[in-house]
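Listing S7. Sequence submitted for prediction.
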Amino acid sequence: MRNIVVPALISVAIVVLAGAYIRANPAVLSATVNSAPKESTYDRILRTGTIRCGYSVWDPLFYIDPKTNEKMGIFHDEMEEAAKRLGVKVIWQEELGWGSVVEAVKSGRVDASCSGYWLNPGRIKNLLPSFPQVYSPLYVWMRQGDTRPIGKPEDLNSDQYIAGNIDGSVDHDIIVKNFPKAKIISLPELDSTPDLVENLVTKKVDFIVVDASTLAGYIANNPGKIKNIFPDKPMNVFPNVILLPPDDWRFKEVMDNILRHIEYDGTLDVILKKYHMEQSFLRNPPPVKFVP
């Protein structure tokens, strides 16, 4: 009998002492509860059947039709197609300023920011990029009637010139690096490229650094207003990517492969043609070479 009672008493004593310790130290219980594995972004997407996308307005990659309020653009259509193939639905959750994208994705406020972004050091350091499919060369643009003698980009590195940019955008870094002596007028981060161009044509700034695809529509509708002054000298080339959470490599792998699927079967070509952008971007080489 003693062999049964003594171990039982010891077990009861352990339970009582453990309970008393936890009551005196509630953080221990909290730490135990909080140690459960956190649901990943990708697991949440599979559970809910939705991808919560942030977006930034940037025609032609993503924009909102002013007449119908319909969301449109290359990355809009591509993301909708990707979600369809994955069997989930896109929720276009909120518009993000260029400077707030990193925090929105990193904090989990959105699952990804899906409207196409260039990679600057802050984004590279804090988020994961999707597999790039289109690349944007950036050029220097000035007013068509500006006749000041400029033979090379270095000539703009002077305090007699004013550069325009949007807060939080990659063009700011390019301007600071290449034209440190130029003055800068920055627009708020929720402003768009048309606002930047308006500053240029109304002589508030002397030059801007923008990719050709973004300005294609403006140039077609406003011939003779602005000019690419160094068409054979892009200031930089950036891949256009979806920005993904920093630690969810499974989500990145899935998105990379579904985007390749869309590119390789020709769907991306159809989307680019829809927006008349077949020739406006640099593209990846074919994945394989056919041997006769």
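Caption to Listing S7: primary sequence and predicted structure tokens for the chain studied. The first strand starts at residue 50 and ends at 55. Residues 64 and 71 are 4 Å apart (CA to CA).
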